[in-house]
């Protein structure tokens, strides 16, 4: 049935394309007055046309971006919406995990390192909690695929996701948007911008998202016990421009989240199958999770964050000086009933067999991140342009893991990084441009184990004891570089080739100290990436078609062996990881009223290490060979959470309504191919043919600047597995439910 639905939808999309193409070919091809909007990006820390940058870049903005978040979705809504980009989480609306071209990190710990860097308003968000800052009043999202180590530093081996918000203006402008949907979902967003003086302008942006609890806890008999959230965020920007040569931009922002952590669902697969069984009910869970002895806790989650940045720019004729100073703070906690069910004292359990109850809580305290970047960049029309810079990063935080049996254990993390970098581009002739870059980075990390097994019953009965762990200190220095060439074939078509190198710094994982296991350390990984691509504007500027093919290897690849029968979390290094594939991005203005976008990526990934063995799951069907030590050989397996293929599609059709408005229909669809969830391969923890669609129907009035629309997210109400817990039973993590609603937006200029 699922395959039939997917095929039918694919045929409908194909028919839409074919009909439009045939209709256009039936006419005499002539120049149109309209053409696709030119897109500019800052992928190389300069404002450039996306068609001139020798990097595989995809962007999200405008109606497509707004539609994705109309139902109160968080940053995970970006998953599969760009070819090669995936995201998931086992920590609810915080601590997302991103993957580009299959490369990411499945570690769920709050101290996890990721090879995809998140850049918000030119500030790196290193900690996984900082990466989840809500998205609102966003000008554009850029997804840079492949290593970006020269300009953006370590921990960018997979790529970066760059968010740029709307900046203050002298003219009075802004908007207000309100949405109401299923499950009591409410989404309020707005901004106001304008000049305070002739030299000072400001922009205030706010967001409020909430959803009622809608999932019943059948174990306690509590209706509407879980599933909701209440999130508030704000951003205030002040732009001071006392002269044409100097500007200062202050950005102050914060968030408050009170909601639900990830919802774990016990035994929703039968042994030997990845199909959902009768234990799965989207509106029901069976939680007995309880740390304090006051009844079921229903996976609560609370986080607060605050940050500020100051960007100074000084134009010194031929050279521009840029300084970006920033600080970020955060704290909060999440609790998870990770077995996803109940286990009574009399031996009864459910749904299915739950060998033992498992509930944990993670607290993030005193996260402080400070960054400073200085840049000098050329500001001329010469054939050669360049930029030089220096970067400093300093972060510290502590994580307290609380287990109902072992008690509370705290570990302290510190990380310092400094770097110097440079990049230059040379216009050899009218057609050929060559770019080269170099960066040296030095990284230091430390971990200190603090209090252990506080208030733990395990210590009382002698099942655990306080251990003596020496502080761990690691450091490493690496050089990253890139070389690329862009050749303009015609005015509307170019081809490029790029070789890039990068590294992810050493990582320390201290999570299992809470269970009397020593911290684990992973050596730095390095990546070598080769990429060729083309960019084109065709059919008189109405069709944009960009593509890239890539091949990369990762030496000393950092992997996280999570879960398994013992529920341990350990860092390991594989000798090598290898991947190859391609991406295609397209946009077509078929008529003045009809616009399509489509993208596809294929990604083959493979772990290469004949000696690496990993513990298996508690009750699933592992298909890997067994080693002499009883663990599973993962050599040849795909990277975890790396979709083999991604396809996304949008269509927008408008009907003019007089001279002042239009009726519109907008739909978006995303398809995710075969994905292996863990390092080992198993029947149950492999997903395939996941897809979701959205729909937006409404009226836009140009004269009075308002829009009224009906929207739907996950309109076919698909039940898609996004993650799993493997140590205790066959527990799964599912996608968001179908949300239907209405949205009203008013803009003023």
Description:
- With 749 residues, the chain is mainly beta.
- Helices cover 5% and strands 54% of the residues.
- The chain contains four helices and 44 strands.
- Strand 18 and strand 19 form a beta hairpin.
- It starts with a helix and ends with a strand.
- Residues 1-33 have low confidence and may be disordered.
List the helices and strands and how they pair.
Elements: H1 2-26, E1 40-41, E2 48-49, E3 56-60, H2 62-68, E4 85-88, E5 97-100, E6 116-120, E7 123-125, E8 138-145, H3 149-152, E9 159-165, E10 173-181, E11 185-195, E12 200-211, E13 215-217, E14 222-226, E15 229-240, E16 246-260, E17 284-285, E18 300-316, E19 319-337, E20 342-343, E21 349-350, E22 359-378, E23 384-403, E24 407-427, E25 432-449, H4 457-460, E26 472-490, E27 493-504, E28 507-509, E29 520-522, E30 525-538, E31 543-563, E32 568-589, E33 594-608, E34 613-614, E35 632-633, E36 645-656, E37 661-672, E38 675-676, E39 686-687, E40 690-701, E41 706-713, E42 721-725, E43 731-734, E44 739-748
């Amino acid at each position: 049935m699922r395959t039939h639905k997917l095929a039918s939808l694919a045929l409908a999309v194909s028919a839409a394309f074919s009909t439009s193409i045939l209709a256009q070919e039936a006419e005499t091809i002539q120049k149109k007055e309209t053409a696709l909007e030119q897109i500019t990006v800052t992928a190389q820390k300069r404002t450039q046309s996306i068609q001139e940058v020798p990097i595989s870049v995809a962007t999200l903005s405008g109606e497509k971006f707004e539609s994705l978040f109309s139902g109160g979705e968080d940053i995970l809504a970006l998953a599969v919406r760009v070819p090669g980009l995936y995201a998931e989480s086992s920590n609810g609306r915080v601590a997302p995990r991103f993957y580009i071209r299959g490369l990411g990190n499945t570690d769920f710990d709050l101290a996890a390192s990721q090879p995809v860097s998140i850049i918000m308003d030119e500030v790196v968000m290193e900690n996984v909690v900082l990466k989840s800052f809500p998205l609102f009043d966003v000008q554009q999202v850029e997804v840079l695929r492949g290593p970006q180590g020269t300009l953006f530093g370590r921990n960018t081996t997979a790529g970066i996701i760059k968010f740029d918000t709307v900046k203050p203006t002298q003219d009075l402008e802004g908007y207000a948007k309100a949405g109401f949907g299923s499950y009591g979902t409410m989404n309020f967003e707005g901004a106001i911008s304008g000049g305070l003086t002739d030299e000072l302008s400001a922009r205030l942006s706010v967001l409020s998202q909430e959803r009622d609890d809608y999932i019943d806890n059948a174990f306690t008999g509590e209706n509407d016990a879980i599933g909701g959230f209440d999130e508030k965020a704000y951003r205030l920007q002040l732009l001071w421009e006392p002269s044409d040569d100097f500007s200062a931009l202050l950005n102050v922002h914060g968030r408050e989240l009170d909601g639900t952590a990830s919802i774990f669902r016990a035994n929703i697969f039968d042994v030997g199958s990845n199909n959902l069984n009768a234990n799965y009910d989207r509106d029901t869970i069976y939680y007995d999770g309880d740390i304090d002895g006051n009844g079921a806790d229903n996976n609560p989650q609370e986080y607060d964050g605050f940050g500020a940045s100051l960007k100074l720019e000084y134009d010194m004729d031929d050279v521009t000086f840029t300084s970006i100073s920033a600080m970020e703070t955060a704290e909060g906690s999440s609790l998870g009933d990770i077995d996803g069910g109940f286990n009574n004292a009399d031996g009864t359990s459910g749904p299915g067999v739950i060998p033992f109850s498992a509930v944990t809580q993670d607290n993030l305290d005193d996260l402080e991140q400070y960054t400073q970047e200085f840049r000098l960049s050329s500001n001329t029309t010469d054939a050669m342009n360049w930029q030089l810079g220096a970067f400093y990063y300093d972060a510290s935080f502590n994580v307290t893991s609380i287990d109902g049996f072992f008690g509370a254990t705290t570990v302290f993390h510190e990380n310092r990084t400094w770097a110097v970098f440079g990049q230059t581009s040379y216009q050899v002739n009218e057609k050929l441009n060559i770019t080269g870059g170099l960066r040296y980075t030095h990284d230091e990390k430390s971990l200190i184990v603090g209090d252990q097994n506080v208030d733990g019953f395990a210590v009382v009965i002698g099942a655990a004891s306080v251990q003596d762990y020496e502080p761990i200190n690691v450091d490493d220095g690496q050089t990253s570089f890139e070389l690329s060439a862009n050749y303009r074939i015609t005015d509307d078509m170019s081809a490029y080739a790029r070789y890039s190198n990068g590294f992810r710094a050493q990582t320390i994982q201290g999570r299992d100290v809470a269970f009397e296991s020593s911290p684990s350390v992973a050596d730095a990984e390095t990546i070598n990436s080769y990429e060729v691509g083309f960019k084109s504007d065709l059919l008189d500027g109405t069709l944009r078609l960009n593509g890239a093919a890539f091949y990369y290897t990762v030496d000393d690849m950092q992997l996280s062996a999570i879960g398994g029968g013992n529920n341990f979390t350990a860092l390991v290094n594989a000798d090598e990881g290898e991947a190859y594939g391609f991406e295609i991005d397209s946009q077509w203005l078929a008529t003045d009223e009809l616009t399509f976008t489509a993208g596809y990526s294929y990604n083959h990934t493979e772990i290469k290490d004949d000696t690496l063995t990993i513990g298996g799951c508690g009750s699933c069907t592992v298909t890997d060979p067994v080693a002499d030590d009883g663990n599973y050989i993962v050599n040849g397996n795909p990277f975890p959470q790396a979709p083999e293929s991604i396809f996304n599609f949008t269509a927008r059709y408008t009907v003019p309504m007089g001279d002042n408005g239009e009726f519109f229909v907008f739909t978006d669809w995303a398809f995710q191919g075969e994905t292996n969830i863990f390092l080992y391969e198993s029947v149950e923890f492999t997903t395939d043919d996941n897809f979701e669609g959205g729909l937006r129907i409404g009226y836009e009035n140009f004269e009075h600047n308002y829009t009224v629309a009906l929207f739907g997210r996950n309109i076919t109400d698909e039940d898609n597995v996004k993650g799993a817990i493997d140590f205790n039973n066959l527990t799964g993590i599912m996608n968001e439910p179908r949300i239907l609603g209405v949205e009203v937006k008013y803009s003023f200029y």
